[in-house]
Write the structure tokens for this entry.
Amino acid sequence: MNTTEDTPATSQAAGMERKIILGLAIALVVVTAAMYAWKVAAVATQEDKFAQAEAQHAQARVQLVEQARQLDASRSEAGLRLFSTPLAWVIRREVMAANLDQVDQYFTDLVQMPGFQSAVLANPDGKILVASDRKQLAVPFASLYPAEYLQAGDIRIERSASAGLRAIIPILGLKQHLGVLVLEYTPPAFTLK
């Protein structure tokens, strides 16, 4: 007769087997959950590091762009200052020769160049002698610019209200102050290429 009877040893072995399998299954679930939690934490850590690096990169880029913008602005000022010196010599020669028509022609040509907005030449008394905008000939210098510009002894470059540059260029004779030239210049827009 072939009957299988459960003996206490067999049933005890089967129960032990089930406990081991159940224990292994629980251990597998715990290990899987721990690995998943570790992976989520590792990914979150890497994402945080990446976000911090990205923020630092963006901040560094902003700083570099601002430094480049400031360097560009200082170069524009330096270029206008360099341009002003020989222009003062030319204007001085024409004023000393009483050739204001030639100065007017220079101003007409100058304001056609990119960036130059206006040019005004005034005598030390504040009377405008030549202006690129003919309407300015009828008004006193002090209504357009600060009166202290008339006494300028050196070339000055200032920021104007329109975000451009203003060159105050004294026109000096050998022994006398002949006048002042004021140029309004807007440098080209700053771009990164």
In short: Strands lie at 116-122, 128-131, 156-159, 165-172, 177-185. The domain at 8-193 is CATH 3.30.450.20 (Beta-Lactamase).
